[in-house]
Design a protein that fits this description.
This protein is of the alpha/beta class. It has 2 domains: about 1-410 and about 465-490, Amino acid/polyamine transporter I (Up-down Bundle), CATH 1.20.1740.10; about 520-659, Rossmann fold. It is about 65% helix and about 5% strand. The chain has helices at about 1-15, 30-45, 50-55, 60-65, 65-90, 95-105, 110-140, 150-165, 165-195, 225-235, 245-250, 260-285, 295-300, 315-325, 330-360, 380-395, 400-405, 410-435, 435-500, 525-540, 555-565, 585-595, 615-620, 625-630, 645-659, and strands at about 210, 300, 305, 520, 545-550, 570-575, 600-610, 635-645. Helix 5 (about 65-90) crosses helix 10, helix 7 packs across helix 19 and helix 8 (about 150-165) runs antiparallel to helix 16 (about 380-395).
């Protein structure tokens, strides 16, 4: 009864399941792909300028005037990275992105390093974007101030639910608000430039505030400390580059021609994001927007601290108020569009993280539950894992954007640098094989672009590590290291299990038959299956069926080939599974047998292996348990579990015997 209710709730929230043949209909055209994959980079104009201004403000008002130069440097890096990634999507369109490039060209350790960096950065993308969206919400509705963490958490839960309903459904829902955001920011920029040209542009609400420099910056940006502060402002502004890599990870989700459409979307992303970032920084400088870390201590009005209860508004909010007037419809449109796009910016991570998680699961680095698509053809387990990680960060840092952003962009620049180095090696290898002059020239051009991209991203990575390490980047690096060890351990465990279960010369499928009506469940032709087959035949069945469920065509073909190779004298029946379910096809098969022969006793043999460590249970599919649970409620059906003890279970037993 409980399962029925839960399933009904799931159908209401997520929707009815899609068949496998529906997958091509979920592919995205460019007009939908742009808001789906580029919303993160586009939305960075909502917090990247704030972080630049906030960092420069440590040296006083005079230092804030350098914000356009810092913004220009960020835009140069952004356009360079976009040009580099256009080469990536043509060379590696499979969806592995930076991970695949590093894994193929630099080795497994480099690939796993990039993967851990990207996974951490995807989680931070959701946490930073949602926290920033909550900040804009409190700017529009001051009565909600202090509740940022709660509203950010609600946003994460809502976005996860939307993505569980399917990628195309999520893209369609996000397209209109994203385009409204772009139009509102570019429109505000155009109006602001016109007002500045005609002398009508006013000053921001914070323009009259005096900034109290931090200790050591009383004389502004001078000496080594001033240069370091400029670099720190640049590294904070480089958050504008996050999300560029998501398109290279999402190439399989584009309509054909996939690589061309992905490259075009990248170009649009670079041009639009640069224009928006330039406009916001110019207007912030022209209207004299001032933003500090602690307004109560760092702002003065006529030599006195600010009134108690002052709430600092983000840069875009102050600019919109200056250009359109407080409380005006355009003002609320800009603030609302910015808040909404920051929520949707997290959708970039909700598309990239599950796809990367699925690829890593296929390679054995993450639990296999992340490998398969859910009811709506989205990687549901990856969506849930990402949402859980983001909620932990939001709650732990109380949705403080300034604290979270110190952890940010370290991972993405590690992946940028590794992928560009990998692409340089890729083109070097391809050039040795190419003979056509035109093809060689095209490869040389691509390699040059990737070499420039490598040099620039490596420099930025060094700057980020130097300037952000003590501010919190070490936490992100530690998380990447821990995740790297976890993934390496999972792969080592899977390799050990596969080697232990592999069929060898001593694993004979032949055994003396006995007489029992039996059904043998087969996933892969391994030792546990052969043992279960022997037990089933030993019961002397009047009928013996071996069945396997077609979840993956390649794996099914491999299983059939292994079955035939061993010349097993039992036919293997393949059950179709258009919805990628394992339990339902098996239950339908058993029920059909019961209808055909209602007086027969059916014994279902389920091969299982026993593990000795609790965490090993987490990385193995629990399908056998679900099948047994369902079969126990079927009259006339018995379940025979055939255990296969792994070495870890033997070690655990020895420890118990010693104790």
């Amino acid at each position: 009864m409980v399962l029925t209710i839960l399933n009904a709730v799931k159908r209401v929230l997520v929707g009815r399941p899609f068949r496998n043949d529906r997958l091509p209909h979920t592919l995205l055209p460019k007009r939908i792909a742009l808001p789906v994959f580029a919303s993160d980079a586009l939305s960075s104009v909502a917090y990247a300028p704030d972080e630049i201004l906030l960092t420069l403000a440590l040296a006083g008002v005079s230092a804030v005037a350098f914000s356009p130069l810092v913004g220009l440097a960020v835009m140069v890096v952004l356009l360079t990275v976009v040009a580099s990634y256009r080469q990536n999507v043509h060379a590696y369109p499979s969806g592995g992105g930076d991970y695949e490039i590093a894994n193929v060209n630099l080795g497994k350790h480099a690939g796993l390093t990039v993967a851990s960096a990207l996974l951490v950065d995807y989680v931070l993308t959701v946490a930073v974007s949602m926290s920033s969206a909550a900040t804009y919400l409190t700017a529009a509705i001051p009565s909600l101030h202090g509740q940022q963490a709660m509203w950010a958490s609600v946003g994460v839960a809502g976005l996860a639910l939307v993505n569980l309903r399917g990628i195309k459904e999520a893209g369609t829902a996000f397209a209109v608000p994203t385009y409204i955001f772009m139009a509102s920011i570019l429109g505000m920029t155009a109006v602001g430039i016109f007002q500045a040209a005609t002398g009508q542009l006013g000053e921001a609400p914070s323009a009259a505030f005096t900034i109290v420099p931090a200790p050591g910056f009383d004389e502004g940006l001078v000496g080594l400390a001033g240069a370091f502060l400029l670099l720190r402002a640049f590294s904070s502004g480089a958050a504008a580059l996050t999300g560029v890599e998501a398109i290279s990870n999402g190439v399989p989700n584009f309509q054909k021609p996939k690589s061309k459409n992905a490259a075009t979307t990248l170009l649009l992303l670079g041009v639009i994001a640069s224009a928006m970032l330039a406009g916001i920084i110019y207007l912030a400088n022209a209207t004299k927007v001032h933003i500090v870390l602690d307004p109560a201590r760092e702002f003065l009005v006529n030599g006195q601290p600010l009134p108690e209860g002052y709430i600092q508004s983000p840069a875009i909010s102050q600019i919109a108020q200056t250009i359109f007037g407080p409380g005006s419809i355009p003002f609320y449109l800009v603030v609302a569009a910015t808040g909404v796009i920051l929520v949707f910016a997290s959708n970039t991570a909700f598309n990239g993280f599950p796809v990367l998680g699925s690829i890593l699961a296929q390679d054995g680095y993450l639990p296999r539950q992340l490998r398969t698509r859910g009811d709506r053809l989205a990687f549901s387990n990856g969506v849930l894992a990402l949402a859980a990680g983001a909620l932990v960060l939001i709650i732990a840092f109380n949705a403080d954007v300034t604290k979270l952003i110190q952890l940010y962009i370290v991972g993405v620049f590690i992946s940028f640098t590794a992928s560009q180095l990998g692409m340089v090696r890729h083109w070097g290898r391809e050039l040795k094989l190419a003979r056509n002059k035109a093809v060689r020239l095209r490869m040389i051009k691509s390699r040059t672009i990737n070499m420039i991209g490598f040099g620039m991203t490596a420099l930025v990575l060094a700057i980020v590590l130097i300037t952000k390490f003590e501010q919190g980047a070490w936490i992100a690096l530690l998380a990447m290291f821990v995740l790297y060890l976890i993934m390496w351990s999972i792969r080592a465990h899977y390799d050990t299990v596969a080697k232990e279960l592999a069929v060898d010369e001593d694993s004979s499928p032949r055994a003396l038959p006995t007489r029992v009506h039996a059904v043998l469940l087969v996933s892969h032709v391994r030792k546990p299956v052969l043992r279960a087959l022997a037990y089933a035949r030993a019961s002397r069945p009047s009928r013996l069926d071996a069945i396997t469920v077609d979840i993956n065509e390649e794996e099914t073909a491999h299983t059939l080939a292994d079955w035939e190779k061993l010349d097993i004298p039992v036919p293997l029946t393949v059950l179709a599974s258009p919805y990628r379910e394992t339990v339902t096809p098996i239950m339908e098969y058993i029920k059909n047998m019961r209808r055909d022969s209602p007086r027969d006793l059916i014994v279902v043999y389920i091969p299982e292996y026993v593990v000795g460590k609790w965490w090993e249970q987490l990385v193995h599919n629990q399908t056998a348990l679900r099948i047994k649970t369902r079969l126990h409620f079927e009259p006339g059906v018995m379940v025979a579990s055939v255990p296969w003890q792994l070495k870890s279970s033997e070690e655990a037993k020895k420890l118990q015997d010693i104790q």
